[in-house]
Amino acid sequence: MPVGVFDSGLGGLTVYRAIRKQMPDQPLSYLGDNAHAPYGVRGADDIYRLTCAGVERLWDEGCDLVILACNTASAVACKRMQEGWIPADKRVLGVFVPLIEAVTERDWGDTSPPREVDVKQIALFATPATVASRAFQRELAFRAIGVDVEAQPCAGLVDALEDNDLELAEAMVRSHVMALLRRMPNPQFAVLGCTHYPILEHIFKAALGDGVKVFSQANLVAASLQDYLKRHPDMVGADRSGRLLTTGDPQSVSDAATRFLSQPLHFEAA
Ligand code: DGL
């Protein structure tokens, strides 16, 4: 059966691409809720309701396992969904935990008490809703002590990327990085905590300077999914090929997605 990949719009395609590369034989179905993007400026209840609707649509596609390839949905809705909404035969996984495990150099499922780690200062770039949720700091505190996180809400960046206005998006990245560096001049790590942002990873890296390590969330999520499927072969199931679905206009989303990943992508109406 296909694994479902969900995002508010195009950003989750960075995760979709990384999974495709790591597991070329794994069928995948993607749902972009482009009609309602961006999520990052919405309230928590709204994000929860839209994420549940998207996940249910992917369950209808036969995806018993759905990856929320959206940090905003992972930060704001995932825990609430896991606390009783998800039926016993389905799974919904967020993209936050693999990232934090990598930052804190922990193996999957290591539940030992929080401990001192090498990293002391982390710059987090994310949507306003993800920053407001403080989910990154909460998950980090379960695993590590003595780490400062400076978070920069990057308002407007997802809109610019969904509209393919790269000039605006690049200018926004530079100004958000400058704003953060004024508050934390020497971060060791930068976390691009929105799946749209890797498209501009080179701009983030140039603005942050050489000394800052930037984490690639998409590759971490793909590796963690591969590990999960090894441990849960029941979630692989009999084959059924996947589709790319959108709640928006399929033609314009196909055009935008093709530009976004620089490869031909064909979306159908959800
Ligand atoms: N790609 C989503 C994320 O990772 C974008 C959120 C939005 O729609 O604002 O947060």
Bound molecule types: D-glutamic acid
Examine the secondary-structure arrangement and name the CATH architecture of the largest domain.
3-Layer(aba) Sandwich
Helix content: 40-55%
Number of domains: 2
Structure description:
This protein has helices spanning 13-22, 44-60, 71-82, 96-103, 128-133, 135-143, 157-162, 166-183, 201-208, 217-231, 250-261; strands spanning 3-7, 28-32, 65-68, 91-93, 115-116, 121-126, 144-145, 148-153, 189-192, 213-215, 244-246, 268-269. The chain is α/β, with parallel strands linked by helices. It folds into two domains: 3-95 and 218-269, Rossmann fold (3-Layer(aba) Sandwich); 97-216, Rossmann fold (3-Layer(aba) Sandwich), CATH 3.40.50.1860. The strands form three sheets. Strands 4-3-1-2-11-12 form a six-stranded parallel β-sheet, with helices on both faces. A four-stranded parallel β-sheet has the order 8-6-9-10, with helices on both faces. Strand 3, helix 3 and strand 4 form a beta-alpha-beta unit. The two termini are 18 Å apart. Residues 7-9, 11, 37-40, 70-72, 127, 130, 158, 194-196 line the site of D-glutamic acid.
What topology emerges from the helices and strands here?
Elements: E1 3-7, H1 13-22, E2 28-32, H2 44-60, E3 65-68, H3 71-82, E4 91-93, H4 96-103, E5 115-116, E6 121-126, H5 128-133, H6 135-143, E7 144-145, E8 148-153, H7 157-162, H8 166-183, E9 189-192, H9 201-208, E10 213-215, H10 217-231, E11 244-246, H11 250-261, E12 268-269
Parallel strand pairs: 1-2, 1-3, 2-11, 3-4, 5-7, 6-8, 6-9, 9-10, 11-12
Helix pairs in contact: 1-10, 2-3, 4-6, 8-9
This protein binds D-glutamic acid.
